[in-house]
């Protein structure tokens, strides 16, 4: 860390120390300070939006912000502010932006990686369970990914799998060793027992996003009998310890109406959930269940419901397909994030099982400059309509083209699938969604969107 970064680190720590003393009164003062001294107007627009959102104490955003002081323990809140706010954004982002310009490639803000392919559940339509306990990244390999990532400005790491908490001990060791990073995990939640929750309190920089498919019937239908009750028990453990946690919801043709219901949102808020990641079902692999894909009407329903509840519910939400307008389209291929599977294959996205690089053979930077990732970079965004961001679900031929031009191969070790076969399963859904998405897009006042770097990506 250079002198300038150390000064930023010190200044922001002092700032948040001041904030912790009296958040109700000091949050508006700090926002005023940011706006006053933002000479280049880098954050003024966002600051004004936050000020407006929290100006009413009864506003849902005001309630959410204040709950981060009443419902989250001080140690974890400060650790996450330092890792995400200071390291990840104020120090990491300028570094990665500089290196992107130097090497002319994408460098992600977050890295998603699979410690293992093993899972204690066997969910309907999930590709991971087919691998069993066959693939694992060693502690040393995971540690080296994080080391390389930090050198490129990446301080946020997300675990998936398989079930990442099968590797509890290694995950905690990595949290300890890299205390300057934030670690999240997509987890089924069933392995969060009292001992692990206590470890989370100790290390402070680990946050779970628990997969839940709705209420008991919908969750157990896809994840197995008794799973829902175990998830609720895990949430209670986390809430009792004032630990930050969220949920990960895959909406399908079977559960979209439940996941998008007010009853469901209210219950999750009551359980202590602070954020929710939404995904639509993708028909990955030869054993996929295309019948679980949502209809255009259901996708529109989720689009409308999430936006409606953003105005009324104290919970932060992100729909990784329907929020393309907020981030300038697709964020995969290192533009916002990328994925490393349990075999070490470096993939553009968790839903794109094709690769031309492996972490055991290439550095992260070499992978970011590989033909596959560069093919992504020059083609993003994949559609002028940011509500049709995906090269598979929304623009089926695009992934086939990328795989062919880059020479990438399928990373499915059980039943390799051609990119064209994967894309073909999405043609009907893409055709049905296109007119709906175009109608919404044409009604929006600002159609440019905002990318993760603040700049609009060029379309090839």
Describe this structure in words.
The chain contains 19 helices and eleven strands. With 460 residues, it is an alpha/beta fold. 45% of the residues are buried. Residues 449-460 have low confidence and may be disordered.
Give the terminus-to-terminus CA distance. 37 Å
Structural class: alpha/beta
SS field, number of helical segments = 19
**Largest sheet, spatial ordering of strands:** 7-6-5-4-3-2-1-8-9
**Biggest sheet features:** 9 strands, mixed
Order of helices and strands: HHHHHEHEHEHEHHEHHEHEHEEEHHHEHH
Spatial shape: globular
Indicate the low-confidence ranges by residue numbers.
449-460
Query: What is the share of helical residues?
Result: 40-55%
Please sum up the structure shown:
The chain is an alpha/beta fold and 460 residues long.
Task: Annotate the secondary structure layout.
Blueprint: H1 3-21, H2 23-36, H3 44-54, H4 60-70, H5 74-103, E1 110-113, H6 139-151, E2 156-159, H7 168-177, E3 182-187, H8 194-203, E4 206-211, H9 216-223, H10 227-240, E5 246-251, H11 256-259, H12 262-271, E6 275-280, H13 296-309, E7 316-319, H14 324-327, E8 337-340, E9 346-347, E10 354-355, H15 364-368, H16 371-379, H17 397-406, E11 409-410, H18 419-424, H19 427-443
Helix pairs in contact: 1-2, 1-5, 2-3, 7-8, 13-19, 16-17
């Amino acid at each position: 860390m250079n002198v300038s970064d150390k000064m930023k680190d010190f200044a922001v720590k002092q700032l948040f120390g001041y904030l912790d003393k009296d958040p109700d009164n000091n949050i508006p003062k700090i926002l005023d300070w940011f706006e006053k001294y933002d000479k280049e107007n880098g954050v003024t627009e966002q600051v004004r939006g936050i000020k407006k959102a929290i100006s009413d104490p009864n506003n849902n955003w005001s309630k959410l912000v204040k709950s981060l002081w009443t419902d989250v323990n001080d140690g974890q809140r400060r650790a996450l502010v330092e890792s995400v706010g200071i390291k990840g954004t104020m120090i990491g982002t300028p570094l990665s932006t500089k290196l992107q310009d130097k090497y002319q490639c994408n460098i992600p803000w977050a890295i998603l990686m699979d410690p293992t392919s093993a899972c204690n559940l066997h969910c309907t339509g999930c590709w991971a369970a087919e691998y069993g306990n066959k693939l694992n990244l060693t502690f040393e390999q995971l540690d080296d990914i994080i080391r390389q990532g930090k050198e490129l400005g990446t301080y946020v790491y997300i675990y998936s799998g398989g079930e990442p908490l099968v590797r509890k001990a290694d995950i905690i060791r990595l949290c300890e060793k890299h205390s300057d990073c934030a670690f999240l995990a997509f987890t089924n939640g069933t392995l969060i027992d009292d001992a692990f929750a206590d470890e989370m309190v100790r290390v402070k920089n680990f946050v779970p996003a628990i997969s839940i498919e709705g209420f008991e019937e919908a969750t157990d239908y896809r994840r197995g009998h008794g799973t829902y009750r175990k998830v609720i028990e895990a949430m209670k453990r986390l809430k009792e310890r004032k630990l930050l946690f969220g949920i990960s919801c895959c909406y399908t043709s079977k559960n979209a109406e439940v996941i998008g219901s007010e009853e469901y949102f209210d219950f999750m808020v009551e359980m202590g959930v602070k954020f929710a990641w939404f995904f639509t079902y993708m028909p990955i692999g030869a054993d996929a269940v295309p019948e679980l894909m949502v209809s255009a009407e259901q996708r529109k329903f989720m689009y409308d419901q999430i936006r409606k509840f953003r105005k009324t519910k104290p919970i932060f939400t992100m729909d990784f397909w329907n929020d393309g307008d907020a981030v300038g389209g697709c964020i995969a291929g290192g533009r916002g994030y990328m994925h490393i599977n349990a075999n070490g294959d470096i993939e553009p996205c968790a839903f794109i099982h094709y690769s031309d690089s492996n972490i055991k053979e290439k550095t992260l930077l070499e992978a970011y400059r590989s033909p596959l990732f560069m093919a992504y970079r020059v083609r993003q965004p994949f559609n002028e309509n940011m509500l049709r961001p995906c090269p598979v679900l929304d623009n089926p031929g695009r992934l086939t083209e990328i795989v062919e031009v880059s020479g990438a191969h399928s990373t499915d070790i059980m039943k390799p699938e051609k990119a064209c076969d994967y894309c073909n399963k999405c043609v009907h859904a893409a055709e049905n969604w296109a007119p709906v998405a175009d109608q919404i897009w044409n009604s929006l006042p600002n159609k440019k969107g905002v990318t993760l770097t603040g700049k609009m990506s060029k379309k090839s």
